[in-house]
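Bug #77: duplicate submission created two jobs. Keeping one. Sequence:
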Amino acid sequence: MTSLAARRTEPLWGPNGLAPAIVQDVADGRVLMLGWMDDEAWRVTQETGKVHFHSRTRDRLWRKGESSGHELVVREITLDCDADAILVAVDPVGPTCHRDTRSCFDPDGAPSESTSQGFGWLEGLWTTIASRASDRPEGSYTASLLDGGVNAAGRKVTEEATEVLIAAKDDAAAEAATSDRTATRDAVAGEAADLVYHALVLLAERGVSPSAVIDVLRGRHRP
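Kept job's structure:
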């Protein structure tokens, strides 16, 4: 059975022509605010990539951050199962709440910026890798690694781990020489990103879910 949301390309507007829009930080899923959209706000949000709402008090379109500069940059927009509520995943520019807190649901005095490291984004990466493992599309690098079996994926993990070590040693040398570390720190991040990606591909090749790894880490954790 196809859901209403799957059949619709826009929200099912309420009697007042509005639908609630929940704004969520794409980095960690934190709910930042609740606003209201009408068909104009819905359209302009998708056209500009910046979240717009319908102001019920001023009865007009308004862009979040138009006065404060604290915009909400759209990453994904989805509808709920009934298509009468909107979920907007965003990259927030500065605090979302007018009280200068990160979220409208935070108490006064709460930090204005996220302390999250953005691990939630890895869920999307894993979904893509799992899809490649299932579909094996032609021309996909991930699929080619999976087709090569444990040796191909495992070899890349070993190579990338070595590259991480080399990049880290280069950065340590730059630090010892009090040199500009911009390039060396970027290299550490880049090589570590390659390592994480290939480790996830190896897990997919072996049919081991990342949640199993998280369970092990959780079991070992001692606060």
